[in-house]
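Q: My labmate handed me this sequence with no annotations at all. I'd like to see what the chain might look like in three dimensions before we decide whether it's worth expressing. Could you predict it?
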Amino acid sequence: MDGTLLVSPSPRPLHQRVVARVLAALTPGCPAECEVLPAPVDVVLDEHTVLIPDVVIGRRADFTERALVGVPVLAVEVVSPSSRHIDRYLKPATLARAGCPHYWVIDPKAPSMSWFRLDGDAYSAVGEVFDDEIAEIEQPYALTMRPSDLVSDY
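A: Here is what I predict for the chain of 154 residues:
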């Protein structure tokens, strides 16, 4: 990120459960010109900045054989103890500067979900839900989710 190498430990099963369920929820409604993929997919913003969101939606035309080159439509981060600061501050600031229109943060420990929309050069909060509350998301496309469903061990 901005020329600095950031390394995180391997994700835990709860983290991966949330990633899998977010992927499953986002995929059916994804427009044909876009694709939803889980990490690890490099998102190349510039020659010094490559991010790997937990889940990313990108325009099909922006995917190469090796990476998503350019700005994603949506980046989703699932917070881990080791990534809290990066997911809540560094990545959104970097993605906002690049022009990514949508950013989500999911905290499996709460459980909670927050979603943001680009407003100028920074993100504005659109919504936040906890536990069994239903997130009614309209962009980048209509979707409903509950944080409790993302973490349950059913």
